[in-house]
Specification:
240 residues; alpha/beta; two-stranded antiparallel ribbon; 8 helices; 8 strands; globular
Length: 240
Amino acid sequence: MLACAVTSAPLGVAASATGAIASTPADGSTPVESALKRCSQSGSVVIQAAVDADAQMACEGVERALQFLARMGIDPPPSTAMDIVEELPGELGGRAVGCYLRETKKILLLSYHTFEAGGEWFRVPVDRELYRSAAAHEMAHAVVGCHAEPTGLPVAAHEYVAYVAMFATMDPVLRERLLAKFPGTGFVNTLQINDINHIVNPNQFGVDAWRHYLRSTNKAAWLREIITGQVVQELPWEGP
């Protein structure tokens, strides 16, 4: 069992399960009221969203990821905050559907409206099940993050576990339809689990991680080894 040793201050949320915050858009238009939703089965996860349906779908994805990782013997962080936003910050804007901020331990996830406007993700048409899977992926990052402090893990290790959690909890019909879009049998060896392969083609990396994971003999122990830094090594970088 991997128990998360991170001790973090309580989240700045209302004491009740739900609350409301009015946020002013950057363009100065009418503020949008964002509700705070505490996921029912995972009370330690609180989601701020302007659309209740977005928060509900995200909670379903979050709970799937937490249940899967718990079965692997991997405990969740003491608390997690997720903000559902219309746009991701900085260079992530237009390039990703969500992110886990290591510094603040917060998850950002695009709204379903923005996610749907992208048309496709992983080469399949966007739908609500795919949105739940995106939420599961980001929640898995938060779980990995709480075990990776203070030294941290390579991005590839984070992503391997997050993609495995995502595919493991995805609707089987959708998963098979998605996997059919990507060739290959997965990573041949652990050296291929590296940051460069992830940067070059994140989606193929995710599919390869899932197929590689399926070949492991003790899947729970394997994921725990990755999270404890025993598998994926930092790539050397040439200094100035």
